[in-house]
Design a protein that fits this description.
By secondary structure, the protein is an all-beta fold. Strands 2, 4, 5, 6, 9, 10 and 11 form a 7-stranded mixed sheet that branches.
Length: about 130
């Protein structure tokens, strides 16, 4: 099984930055496309960004383009989400997920393509 653990969330003022980390277990990490999703109070879970297994392809939600940057270090079994110029609208629980299909070349942005999920880390942005 794949286990994912997010960290790096917290309380930050508008305009500030946070870097989230997602640590994965096992050697399978390098074979998996990964995604970051978020869920705000009263809203459904939405994709933030997805990244291919090699890191050479990414897909960002329009709401975070130019502000958030995803990266991965397969040698460390870790994917990162650098979040800059945060706004209160970014307040949500953030979840790391691994695609259900190993070695896929598809960078999926729908939650039903992901089989493994972390517990989430809370990001709260004050106005």
């Amino acid at each position: 099984q794949v286990q994912l653990v997010e960290s790096g969330g917290g309380l930050v003022q508008a305009g500030g930055s946070l870097r989230l980390s997602c640590a994965a277990s096992g050697r399978t990490f390098s074979s998996l496309a990964m995604g970051w999703f978020r869920q705000a109070p009263g809203k459904g879970r939405e994709v933030v960004v997805a990244i291919s297994r090699s890191g050479d392809s990414t897909r960002y939600a329009d709401s975070v383009k130019g502000r958030f940057t995803v990266s991965r270090d397969n040698a460390k079994n870790t994917v990162y989400l650098q979040m800059n110029n945060l706004t209160p609208e970014d307040t949500a629980g953030y979840y790391c997920a691994a695609d259900r299909t190993i070695y896929t070349s598809v960078v999926a942005t729908t939650a039903n393509n992901y089989a493994f999920w972390g517990q989430g880390t809370q990001v709260t942005v004050s106005s």
